[in-house]
Amino acid sequence: MSVLNKTYNNSQFYSEKYRPQFHFTPKKNWMNDPNGMVYYEGEYHLFYQYHPGGLQWGPMHWGHAVSKDMLTWEHLPIALEPDDLGTIFSGSVVVDWNDTSGFFNGKEGLVAIFTHCKEEVQSQSIAFSKDKGRTWVKYHGNPVIPNIGIKDFRDPKVFWHHETNKWIMVLAAGQKVMLYGSTNLIDWTYLSEFGNDEGAHGGVWECPDLFQLSVDGDSSNNKWVLQVDLGDGAIAGGSGGQYFIGEFDGVTFQNENSPNEINWLDYGKDFYAAQSFSDIPEKDGRRIWMAWMSNWKYANELPTSPWRSTMSIPREVELRKMENGLIKLFQKPIAELKSLRLDQYVIRNQYVNGDANVLAGQKENTFEIVVEIENLTADEFGFKVRQSSNKEETAIGYNVLNNVLFVDRENAGEHEFSNQFKGRHSFQMNNSQETFKLHLFVDKSSVEVFFNDGEAVITDLVFPEDQSKEMEFYVVNGEVKIVSLELYTLKSTWE
Length: 495
Prior knowledge:
With 495 residues, the protein is an all-beta fold. 0% of the residues lie in helices and 49% in strands.
């Protein structure tokens, strides 16, 4: 009997080798892009690209889970299945508060907007739910946007634009995005396009998102963020995400930076198809997204079973003005993650020169580190996590001589499944850093590194042995001061 057909007790789920303990994973089988992320009546909904018949990408369905806190998830039945119009590719979900669609008899409900794909022809369709997303009815007039002769024509993200009193759709189309408008989610009008000569073009564009954020929390100073992924040619190789900052008037998005400027979302190799939650209440005020933690260079071959693929931790995104006047996107772990903290180990105002390991005796494989370091004379410093006596380790460091933050997974564990996996992924800083802040999340098979309150992030999968739990703070050629270090063990969200 194959592993996919075995019957598992609840106690067996989520204890398998490499199974993340505080990241979302399906019970079994293949998952990729997050879809339809929406908050409604106290629940965060996560839909996702799902193949219920195997561990590799196949006929796409929408899997479904709900959560009260974006950490502890309840698995629900498959939401959308293939039909005569094709398989179900990525898309979004909105709350139709004012029944613009007419589906809800004057009340409100959820509308999903997604891509149908049949024989490589892609078109946009909709479905609606009157029971908080538990069951869905596909619109009888699908597709609502037929294919217009573009091969890659997919991944609609829809939101309500108050200023023009209509729904806006941003849609990936080859190596650009196209914008459409509608008053009822059914009849769509082409508005504009963006991106032919802007940003990175190493591969086809996918999974766009468009939303407004205030700069430095100032509600009188707002900018629009267009996030879009590319299937190849990202900063760390393979698939990855980029973003643009500018203005949107309800018709056209205008990039305020140079067309050839590239702003990467993440400098690791495993952060793709980021999507933000729709309809988070205004009193909350946060824009929160998650991404698929994988890369198309090796996603189908990852050494996990009976599931394959993981979502990133949820991240709050903000805009901040830098000292040079440029506006940048920052990402930080959501505050809810603090609820997972258990035991704490603390270091304050300690000088370290590398002669002794200040983390000796700390053995964990699911943990969080919050640290501030003042460099005195060192050439390089950082952490080695998921270490073992057989020389497994993942290095997370800062090279002072080259002003480079990096994650090195050359010796991080299993890698034979792909010659694209091993490597060192880095962020090149413009200036040297005297004070250095890092926020690390390490799970059974991943590291997420937030630098200086989220100015840059490196997200990488790793596959060490379960017993690789040792850790080290290392210093090369000199001395640093650990101003503060807090190490927390983290409880499982699946218990």
